[in-house]
Amino acid sequence: MLGGNATIESISVLPRLLRDNVVYENWEGSHNVLLMQVLRDCRRKRAHEGYLAHLAEQARGHARLAEAVSAARRELEQALSAGDDAASLRLKRLGDRLAWLQWATAMAADGTEPELVEHFLDRRLAPEAAVDERLLRRLAILSRDP
Question: Where are the domains of the chain?
Fold first, then answer.
């Protein structure tokens, strides 16, 4: 944006700021590539723990919402302990639900009337069908080495 001015020490403070800044990975690619990166980060670095702790904190005082956060945590841990194929199938659906859960917990933490939060939960976080276990077994059979 600033061309060379951003890298010349005598003109700007930006070089020092850029050196001191924490660099985060910026991944591009298909949704499946990004999903697998999230899966690896959750398994290796436990990247999801802080996020789920934040959701639990925001849900405090709202029993149904707190239970939804706990259920999402259990489901995520189960997905992370599964093989890559099964985990990616489960994470796709769970990711959408976690996004709605983030919204619901933010509403509760912001002081939204409990009736509106309940209505939101009824409409957006309705129980979804579990991933078909028969499909997961078939995937396991297909992924075995001959």
Answer: 3-143
Q: What percent of the chain has pLDDT over 90?
A: 34
pLDDT in tens, 24-39: 556 667 777 888 888 9
| DSSP symbols for 49-62 | HHHHHHHHHHHTT-
Cβ atoms of 104 and 117 within 8 Å: the answer is: yes
Torsion sign across C-alpha atoms 107, 97, 46, 32: negative
Reply yes or no on whether the pLDDT at 1 is more than 60: no
pTM confidence score: 0.67
Contact 35, 95 (CB under 8 A): yes
From residue 39, alpha-carbon distances to 5, 99, 128 in Å are 39, 16, 21
CA distance to 3, 25, 145, per residue, from 20 (Å): 19, 16, 48
CA-derived radius of gyration, the chain: 21
